[in-house]
Amino acid sequence: MSYRLEKNQVSSVQKKIGFVFILSSLCLLVGLGIDAKRVSFNYLLSFCFLMSLGLGGLFLTMLWHVTSSRWSVLIRRIPETFSYLVMVGLGLAIALFMALNQLYPWSQEVLVQHDKLLSHKALYLNNTFFILRTILYFFIWILLYRKVIQPSLHEDTHPTAHAHQRMFQWSAVGLVLFGFTITFAAIDWMMTLKAQWFSTIYGVYYFSGTFVAILASTILAIRWFQSKGHLTEVTEHHFHDLGKLLYAINIFWAYIAFSQFMLMWYGNIPEETVFYADRNQSAWPMVSMLLIAGHFILPFFFFMSRHAKRNRWILGFSALWLLIMHYVDLFWLIMPNLSPKEVPLGWLEVVAFFWVLSLIGLVITFRWKHHAYVPVCDPHLKESLEFHQL
């Protein structure tokens, strides 16, 4: 069995997605002439969302290799495909470099001169070092992609005896490198939007969100494949394990979010509480309550049962819901730095949302057009196909 999508089937989907992408891109170009700063913040939001899926795919693939998760072989190609978004992210980062003055106060010399704290951090927070660090992150991520993901794709046509051993070894090293790079990337891209504030678990917070996002995206991709008559071998047993992972990591996200808030509230230090003070104005508390209710309470009480994890429709809906909540979470992290006194929710935000979704859709379908959606030559594929749990 080839496990490949028909090219005409993919092309028809790509045409629809491509239309949305072109239209939204044109609207963003128009928006640049109206409010360049607001477009820049929406672009950063889209960039961080796209990178969360790409990095999540890379991490999940390495995790499954290191833990020898044979049950996941059948669906491993999906996070492998999402990891290609890291390559796309490198191109998007170049445009991000051009918008530094719009996004980060520390990139404006006048502000730095009149702010002692920014001046004190100038050795680390400056345009040149920011760009060099970001390039270093992408160098490491692309290296891991070439050492872990590409051999898996190559194995479809040229299986080798030692491929899995090398992927295991690189994954073990890669998880350590990944932990450092995603932490510093989250700090650089988002936390330094307000450089006067700091959090020691900000990187873990972003990581937990990326893990939730890639698990949710994997479930949604499987449901899309099954709607087209593919991946019918994925059973309720696979969905059950994916669901357990999804909700376990979502609870971990809630734990990190609460820990950050509780420690800062208890310490009551102005340098820390300013983050929550900005999100306690106008309608921002409503967004905060939406995250508490939608990202934790609703999934915890309504989607965590054994029946819900084994029901493809319920699990698919909860995955979609959590993916949307992940976007809201990034919106809550980034956009108050643009507008602390009101929630910026207009046509530009809607356009940016559809722009990044269509870009992700184009990249993913392009990859599925040229590669099998299952690692067909993996020696443990048979075990994954026969996976069954009591």
Structural features, described:
The protein has one domain (7-376). By secondary structure, it is mostly helical. It has 17 helices and no strands.
Mind sketching the topology for me?
Elements: H1 7-34, H2 36-66, H3 77-82, H4 85-97, H5 100-103, H6 109-113, H7 116-120, H8 127-155, H9 163-189, H10 202-227, H11 236-267, H12 270-278, H13 284-302, H14 306-310, H15 312-334, H16 347-370, H17 381-385
Helix pairs in contact: 1-2, 1-16, 2-4, 2-8, 2-9, 2-10, 2-15, 2-16, 4-8, 8-9, 9-10, 10-11, 10-15, 11-13, 13-15
This entry's quaternary arrangement is single chain
Topology order in helix (H) and strand (E) letters: HHHHHHHHHHHHHHHHH
Computed over alpha carbons, the radius of gyration is 21 Å
Distance between the termini: 28 Å
Give average pLDDT, whole number: 93
**Class based on secondary structure composition and strand pairing:** mainly alpha
Number of strand elements: 0
Strand content: under 5%
Overall domain count:
1
Largest β sheet strand count, sense and barrel closure: none
Q: Main traits of this protein?
A:
390 residues; mainly alpha; single chain; globular
Short synopsis of the structure:
The chain has 390 residues and is mostly helical. The protein has helices spanning 7-34, 36-66, 77-82, 85-97, 100-103, 109-113, 116-120, 127-155, 163-189, 202-227, 236-267, 270-278, 284-302, 306-310, 312-334, 347-370, 381-385. It has one domain.
